[in-house]
Amino acid sequence: MSQGPLLDTNSPLNGDQAQRLNDVLGGMNRDQMTWLSGYLAGLNASGGQLSAASPAGATQTVSALPEITVLYGSQTGNAEGVAEQARDRAKAHGFNVRLLDMADVTKKDLKDPTNLMVVVSTQGEGDPPDTAIGFYELINGRKAPKLDGHRFAVLGLGDSSYDQFCQMGKEFDARLAELGAERIGDRVDCDVDYEEPAEAWIETVLARYAELSGATTAAAEQDGPATQASESQWSKKNPFHAEILDTVILNDDGSSKETRHIELSLEGSGLVYEPGDALGVVPQNDPAYVDELLEKLKISHDTELDTGSRIRDALLAEFEVTTLTRPFLEKWAELSNDAELQRILSDEARDEFKEWVYGRHIIDVIEQFPVENLDAATFTQALRKLPPRLYSIASSYNADPDEVHLTVGVVRYEAHGRARNGVTTGYLSDHVQPGDTIPIYVDRNKNFKLPHDANTPIIMVGPGTGVAPFRAFMQERDDAGAEGDNWLFFGDQHFHTDFLYQAEWLNWREKGLLTRLDVAFSRDQAEKVYVQDRMREKGEDIYAWLERGAHFYVCGDGDRMAADVHQALLDIAKEHGGLDEDAAAQYIRELQQSKRYQRDVY
Amino acid sequence: MTDIIAKLRDESLDDYAANESLKVNSDFLRGKLMDDMADNATGAVSPDDTQLTKFHGFYMQDDRDVRDQRRKKKLEPLYSFMVRLRIAGGRMSSQQWLTLDDVAQRYANNTLRITTRQTFQYHGVFKSNLRAHLKTVNDAMIDTIAACGDVNRNVTSTANPHRSAIHRQVYDLAAAISDHLLPRTRAYHEIFLGEERVAGGPDQDEPLYTKHYLPRKFKIGLAVPPDNETDVLTNDVAFIAIVENGELKGFNVAVGGGMGSTHGEPDTYPRRGSIIGYCDVDQTVDVAEKIMLVQRDNGDRKNRKHARLKYTVDTMGVEGFRAELEKYLGYTLGEERAFEFTTTGDILGWYQGEDGQWHYGLFVENGRIRDYPDDNPIHAGMQIMSGMREIARIHDGDIVLSCNQNLIITNVKPELREQIDAIIDRYRMLKDVTPLRQHSIACVAFPTCGLAMAESERYLPTLLDRFDAIMKDAGLENDPIIVRMTGCPNGCGRPFMAEIGFVGKAIGRYNLYLGGDFTGTRLNKMYRENIDEKTILEELTPMIHRYAKEREAGEHFGDYVVRVGIIKATENGLDFHTA
């Protein structure tokens, strides 16, 4: 059957739409038509919202708005999520948008003047995300491109409890300007509770770009869809209450570690996750700690806040009341007007500050630098929101869709005369038990994923709780019957008490799934041995695996282990690949940029 | 004469017990042990190699107390090794003692255990410590080769080689037999001591054993009547010294002793050795070898539960066995000569040997040498290990282990006697014990032994407290009764030769055996099956009281229960299960 062209008279479309659709349909073959009819039926059935679609009835001329490039550097996927949100919002406003990962960016991409929206996170001690290292080095190196005529705005993601808070955002912001680009808006630094400020930044920047182009952005009639259309209804703001099925301390008696294996039920949640994803746990603060805090502040439990909630409830569930951040201390220095506190916060005391903060909690500051007659509102305004904690998931959805498992290292120590617990680990180990529910959501991590090809070999380095995602990897590959070789490096303090999931690794090795298993127990002999030492011992084989396409994964401690493992990898490339310093660095950088070297470090 | 190699060549090894192919294919006991030792992801060795390690003197075990907890924690069982030394006749110098003591502290669970076969066992040796352990022991000129496995095990001899010239001569023969029957493979030296393998070297040369080794374990003991402290008739081969006019003439030769059996399988039974004749002193090593070869070639290699020499002897008949042996020997054995055993016990406390030298026999309950904490309910504050260390430091002479799990400090200089007494006092190495307790034996069982069905070493001392009370009530506190307990029917504590024997069936439950004799020449018989402590006490309390009243002069408990018909005498292994 043949039909004539679509017109505004024979369809519900307006003339422009009809014309554009005629152009598209005219070039289509039969198969494409068949697909399209199914696609449209499906789209209609799911509510009819197409994320990239301009709102119906938009009347502005698309060409009036400039093209925007959203450039992101992301480690765990948060920055990438924000970048995607920026793309979607920009499209909704009628911009043409290009989404660009710093991992993929080349000098050519920045040849013509661009309107940049830069979203970048900061790792560890002020480092760039792994996949952004190449770009970071490029713009800071001798071959850095001139960016005259470019425009930009930067959003930094970070955690204010780290000394080098949002360092990458700051550096990119400064460096892009140095290279000649025009800053069109102030940089925004986001703390762990980044969603709201990120959204505000997106809107502000888009409005500014529209203004600069002389156009006004169309008022997007609806919010753009969430970053992933398939995302479940459960989120950080609306967590699923998962029942704890079982919890067991994996360390045997005599260990100085307390690592908990926690099994949660996902039954009825519809939550889906992939190996490498993290589980967000929305914790509660320790009631005893909160009570002590209120007592020291001489604030009554029942004091009502503007929000209508009682302060005790708010301190339990809404605010971070343990970890010290610089913003809190600055506020406290102002309130207490204490010279010592002000001195510690000065730029000259930067190094001392780090040491000073270590092991100190908010309660210690309140005790040491009392503020008289402090009211509840002033106090809570000084606090940041209680961030959920993310744990690498230790199980595979495909192996058991009804459950999700975590491997949680319980933090307990003494400092400044007090026994300390990590907020979430304390919550998980001391305040909830099997049968209770805890609020959770899935936090995707696109940058820590098994290779698409089930035959690709993988090398996993996961000492301590860093082994968690690799248990998920093995469950997944076991379930899928994947034939790629698998090699695990594990380490901890003692073989007899701290070999997390030992029986499972041995079982997988026995089955032939786990091809190689190398372990390092640091405190079983006079000389400490770590995973990176085992890597060096097996360097020749590691290099051979990489040469045949292996993916290399590191999970765990980001303070020292990740750097030591990185150095070992460089040394292996030098020794066994016959590469010089620069070539080895390039070799590793290429692994990172092709996402064959992925890290999930904390 | 059967050639084992010719016999096996024609048949597929599949027809034989699994261990047979393991041995043959092990490259003379090497297996994959090199790889196992290098694998630090597990405290275990691979399943096949667990059989091979026995030939090298150690068994893989796990701490059964924590097995379930570790399973829940997703950890493998807490594997460790029981390492058994080869110390012919139990004799070592005080210097060697100090090394073995040091090894226990550094590489094992800080205890030493005297076995019922005159050697030390270490428990809790982790794989990561194994090489260092064996190397240190080796440097002290002691090893663990053939301490377990299908080979000739530690050769036992009298408790004190220095008691007389005869005892010394018998000890020398024990050591000679031990050396002669040692496997020749260099596997042990390569894998554990770092020796380089020499291609085409002497390792291919296992002239006595061949690559098939023996069908099952093989044990040899020697005794000098009237003492039978080696319980000599429980061995596959027993040499009973014949002394005439103060001169060692030769030995009565007994074959086919052995304790092991399996619950509920009447085809398996303990057996007392059958005397098949007499040999001269200079024939002894040869006779030992040829008996082993007859067993090598005729033992049942299809069913390991039927593979010990005792079954070979009963299959061939005692006369048939002797005839076959004489073919191997090329000469005939003499006729059995008269002898009498009067005791299986050790001499404890101070005594003088034939030459006037002083010796001290120290009672060690269940052979466990360790320092007990002050709150130990049975051995509060006894510091046997530290005490012995002190003694070994000042004493310049031999220390000998006995088959009753005691130790004898030999050739003590007279001026040291007081010092040794003082050390024994200071370290509380001895507590007041009754003769009943002195004659008791318990095997290790829980938590390390994988075979244990019930407690033994950790329980018998408590049960003996109850028995001591009963004996006191009955006025028998100065009389010995031989009580032995094992956690399973394999019989490491020789329960089937006890006057009162307990063999574990399940946690807290035992079979009760009665009617063995005091001198180690008669097996007992099952009296009650699968009973708990309450029933044990209900059965034995009236029996002991009745024995106190009705016994004849000098009559031992085991003989009494047979005489009055409480239990029927077991004449030999084949009627062990006959009521």
TrEMBL record, chain A:
Keywords from the UniProt entry: Amino-acid biosynthesis, Cysteine biosynthesis, Electron transport, FAD, Flavoprotein, FMN, NADP, Oxidoreductase, Transport
Cofactor: how bound: Binds 1 FMN per subunit. Binds 1 FAD per subunit.
Pfam families listed in its UniProt record: FAD_binding_1, Flavodoxin_1, NAD_binding_1
InterPro entries membership: CysJ, CysJ-like_FAD-binding, FAD-bd_FR_type, Flavdoxin-like, Flavodoxin/NO_synth, Flavoprot_Pyr_Nucl_cyt_Rdtase, Flavoprotein-like_sf, FNR_nucleotide-bd
Catalyzed reactions per annotation: hydrogen sulfide + 3 NADP(+) + 3 H2O = sulfite + 3 NADPH + 4 H(+)
Domain FAD-binding FR-type: 237-451
Cofactor: FMN; FAD
Keyword Transport: yes
Pathway assigned to this chain's UniProt record: Sulfur metabolism; hydrogen sulfide biosynthesis; hydrogen sulfide from sulfite (NADPH route): step 1/1
Domain of life: Bacteria
Record domain Flavodoxin-like: where: 68-206
Enzyme Commission (EC) number: 1.8.1.2
Quaternary data: Alpha(8)-beta(8). The alpha component is a flavoprotein, the beta component is a hemoprotein.
Described function: Component of the sulfite reductase complex that catalyzes the 6-electron reduction of sulfite to sulfide. This is one of several activities required for the biosynthesis of L-cysteine from sulfate. The flavoprotein component catalyzes the electron flow from NADPH -> FAD -> FMN to the hemoprotein component.
Protein name: Sulfite reductase [NADPH] flavoprotein alpha-component
The species this protein was found in: Kushneria pakistanensis
Gene that specifies this protein: cysJ
Automatic annotation (TrEMBL), chain B:
Chain positions recorded as [4Fe-4S] cluster binding sites: C443, C449, C488, C492
Domain Nitrite/sulphite reductase 4Fe-4S: 177-330
Sequence positions that bind siroheme: C492
Domain Nitrite/Sulfite reductase ferredoxin-like: 80-134, 352-425
Enzyme class: oxidoreductase
Keywords from the named record: 4Fe-4S, Amino-acid biosynthesis, Cysteine biosynthesis, Heme, Iron, Iron-sulfur, Metal-binding, NADP, Oxidoreductase
Catalysed reaction equations from the record: hydrogen sulfide + 3 NADP(+) + 3 H2O = sulfite + 3 NADPH + 4 H(+)
Involved pathway(s): Sulfur metabolism; hydrogen sulfide biosynthesis; hydrogen sulfide from sulfite (NADPH route): step 1/1
Entry cofactors: [4Fe-4S] cluster; siroheme
Pfam families the UniProt entry points to: NIR_SIR, NIR_SIR_ferr
Matching InterPro entries: CysI, NiRdtase/SiRdtase_haem-b_fer, Nit/Sulf_reduc_fer-like_dom_sf, NO2/SO3_Rdtase_4Fe4S_dom, NO2/SO3_Rdtase_4Fe4S_prot, NO2/SO3_Rdtase_4Fe4S_sf, NO2/SO3_Rdtase_FeS/sirohaem_BS
Comment on bound cofactor: Binds 1 [4Fe-4S] cluster per subunit.
EC number(s) stated in the UniProt entry for this protein: 1.8.1.2
UniProt keyword Mitochondrion, yes or no: no
Its biological purpose: Component of the sulfite reductase complex that catalyzes the 6-electron reduction of sulfite to sulfide. This is one of several activities required for the biosynthesis of L-cysteine from sulfate.
Alphabetical list of PANTHER family matching this protein: SULFITE REDUCTASE [NADPH] SUBUNIT BETA, SULFITE REDUCTASE [NADPH] SUBUNIT BETA-RELATED
Assembly, per entry: Alpha(8)-beta(8). The alpha component is a flavoprotein, the beta component is a hemoprotein.
Entry similarity comment: Belongs to the nitrite and sulfite reductase 4Fe-4S domain family.
Name of this chain's protein: Sulfite reductase [NADPH] hemoprotein beta-component
Native source species: Kushneria pakistanensis
